[in-house]
Amino acid sequence: MIKSLAFSGILNNRARFNPDFYNWNRVKIGYCDGSSFTGDVEAVDPRTRLYYRGARIFLAVVEDLLAKGMKNAENAILSGCSAGGLAAILHCDGFKALLPMGAKVKCFSDGGYFINAKDVSGAPRIEDYFDDIVTTHGSAKNLPISCTSRMKPSLCFFPQYVVKDVRMPLFIINAAYDSWQIKNVLAPTRSDPTGVWNYCKNDIHKCSANQLQIMQGFRLEFIRALTGLGPSTSRGYFINSCYAHCQTEMQETWFAIDSPKLNNKTIAVAVGDWFYDRSSFQRGDCPYPCDKTCHNRVFEPHGRVDTLTYT
């Protein structure tokens, strides 16, 4: 767990970089439980001494913040990136219940809208992976009963099946060609043992015509998976056609001169307008490579950590 972290993007404290939220109290919660804060197993793993209790961590953090002054909050946003974005969806209603009755509470998920899609070999690896998580962490009891009562609990870890049960206003920020999902859902290493997808996964400009066609199919699956959001103006979304994963905590993709835009709005402006009820925002994008405002991630050829290089 890192000891210090630069606050940028939505966490920035300067108005010119974060016009709507710069003067808010901003808290970054370290993610350490592996279940988007849904785990709750009483027994301790005797072999590893691991505690699967992410739900208790989340509650303890919120209670600590309430004691530090959040009990007086008039406005609050629960947001997150990747697994934290999934946590923002799964905990949105519970977060609201812990805050003052009159507080305006909304949630947004950045890069956390993981879809239930088969990989390039036709295997349902992400569904199996989520099933392992929910089983290992005992997460079912902390997923919405309105979802778990009608399908297998591990499916309720997928936003597409659970968003319609979220009562609080919710905003989804995601790339239709989410780089984490392309690398781990569509073309995971286990389904590509010869590494045919390696260059493509590291740099979308190096994808073959066939690989791009497959990725276009993934984009269409992603768009179909958004239908659970419904037409309500309390729901918003910013789905661009970039090769990216998490765009709200990096200044260049949140609010800068060359930030990604849809309908001529940056993510920061779209989220601010939605939160303050200035205007609704529900926008998708044309297929890759039409969006010239994208910052497409380029990864190191042999490393798991991406460079901070954009094209």
Description:
The two termini are 30 Å apart. The longest helix has 17 residues, at 209-225. The strands form three sheets. The chain has a five-stranded parallel sheet with strand order 1-2-3-4-7, sandwiched between helices. Strands 5-6 form a two-stranded antiparallel ribbon. Strands 8-9 form a two-stranded antiparallel ribbon. It is an alpha/beta fold and 311 residues long. The protein has ten helices and nine strands. It is globular, with a radius of gyration of 19 Å. The protein has helices spanning 54-67, 83-98, 125-137, 145-148, 159-162, 179-186, 198-202, 209-225, 251-254, 267-275, and strands spanning 75-81, 104-110, 170-175, 235-240, 261-262, 265-266, 282-283, 297-299, 306-310. Helix 2 (83-98) links the parallel strand 1 and strand 2 (104-110).
Question: Short description, anyone?
Answer:
It is built from ten helices and nine strands.
What is the fold's blueprint, element by element?
Elements: H1 54-67, E1 75-81, H2 83-98, E2 104-110, H3 125-137, H4 145-148, H5 159-162, E3 170-175, H6 179-186, H7 198-202, H8 209-225, E4 235-240, H9 251-254, E5 261-262, E6 265-266, H10 267-275, E7 282-283, E8 297-299, E9 306-310
Parallel strand pairs: 1-2, 2-3, 3-4, 4-7
Antiparallel strand pairs: 5-6, 8-9
Q: How many beta-strand runs? A: 9
Estimated share of beta-strand residues: 5-15%
Helix content: 25-40%
Strand order of the largest sheet: 1-2-3-4-7
Distance between the termini: 30 Å
Helix segment tally:
10
Anisotropy-based shape: globular
Describe the structure using short key phrases.
single chain, 311 residues, alpha/beta, two-stranded antiparallel sheet, 10 helices, 9 strands, globular
